[in-house]
Amino acid sequence: MIINILLISLSLCLVTNNYIVDGRMASISQGENLELEKQLKLINKPPTKTIQTSFGHIVDCIDINKQLAFDNPLLKNHKIQLQPSFQVARTTINEGQRSARLSSSIGIEKVSCPRGTVPARRRKKDDLIHAKQLSKITGMLTKDIPGSYGAAVKLNPGGTYYGIKGIIDTYNPIVASKEQMTGAFIYLSNGPPDVANSIITGWQDTDEVYPEIHGDIKTHFFIAWADKNTSAGCYNLQCPGFVQTDKSIYIDSPVINTSTYDGPQFDISLSIYLDPTTNNWWVRLQETDLGYFPAALFSDMSSANEGGWYGKTMTVVGNPSPPMGSGHLPDNNIRHSCYIRQMAFQDQSRGDIGPEFQLVSIYRDNPSCYDVQYDGYEDKSLGYAMLFGGPGGYCGN
């Protein structure tokens, strides 16, 4: 089933709707300004070290025990889990196989925070003001919202899932409006649509979409979570929830290298796994355990009953939809359209399982705009792989 999920309910943004005029920030009242200052003090924790990145982000190194997550009352007595109690199997590909198909897969900007600290991108007042624009997008995983389109391979609903992974091709599609989004991700969710608990991670293009939020026009790595039963959840670190343990990669980092049509291909490896000992949901990027979503955040996420590998776009009704992936429909050529390779999931066996045809369904809501090609297992380099994407345009409602 298609779940409805509120990913971006940013309760931190309490300003009025009149905050952007012709692309510029409008004036706000003194009371609103004081409220924003208070929010910034809560979000931006005192750093032990500050780093200026090559993309202009200011990243603060925060005491791991004082990070934003622990402002959540649900985590009041939470004990940090520094590493998962399980080991994730590495995807081993020799260079001969890799170079025959793909270029090297790397591209997340890294920082160097001291031991015992974690990196967090410093938020500005403008970030909070403009973040309210995000609240208009209410359905990363749903087809029910006008202007929202997807192309996906989805696990059969009703199963019991404990993990999902994939290596996702990264592009930087051209997006023309701040009210548009395009991206690719993996997800797991549990529960009926109206009270679904969900976790998502992937990349999202910000070119002319949310430069005020991200501070640049690059493709960005992102995480998101939601519990619709309690109306909780958010993108990245816009609210207390995700507990980071890695000191080198910051959430919302730009993807340095992106692919080009019929040219070099760059990808990022992502996974979401449930720790069988703690029931925390770990996020893994490029063979690095970034951190986890604590079990206490969710009203019902001891396992997942849905999951999948997704390409997604959103736009305002009546406007053309942005490109997805490379902007080209799949044509059996991995250098022409966006891909997700080495697709796998975990069930009760807790071993990685390839998504055979009988275990999944193909989803596309407008094949002339965006399509999916899935042939199951390809070869050792690609594993189970899908091609997806398309030009967008006027796709209907």
Please, could you describe this protein's structure?
It is a single chain. This protein has 397 residues and is mainly beta. Helix content is 8%, strand content 31%. The protein contains 4 helices and 21 strands. The chain has helices at 30-43, 95-101, 125-131, 211-214; strands at 20-21, 24-25, 49-52, 58-63, 117-121, 148-155, 163-169, 181-190, 197-205, 219-227, 232-235, 243-244, 267-274, 281-285, 288-293, 306-314, 338-346, 352-353, 360-364, 371-377, 384-389. The strands form 4 sheets. Strands 7, 12, 13, 14, 15, 17, 18, 20 and 21 form a 9-stranded antiparallel beta sheet that branches. A hairpin with a 6-residue loop joins strand 8 (181-190) and strand 9. The longest helix has 14 residues, at 30-43. The protein is globular. The two termini are 20 Å apart. 48% of the residues are buried. Mean pLDDT is 83; it is low at 1-26, 92-101, 134-138 and 207-215.
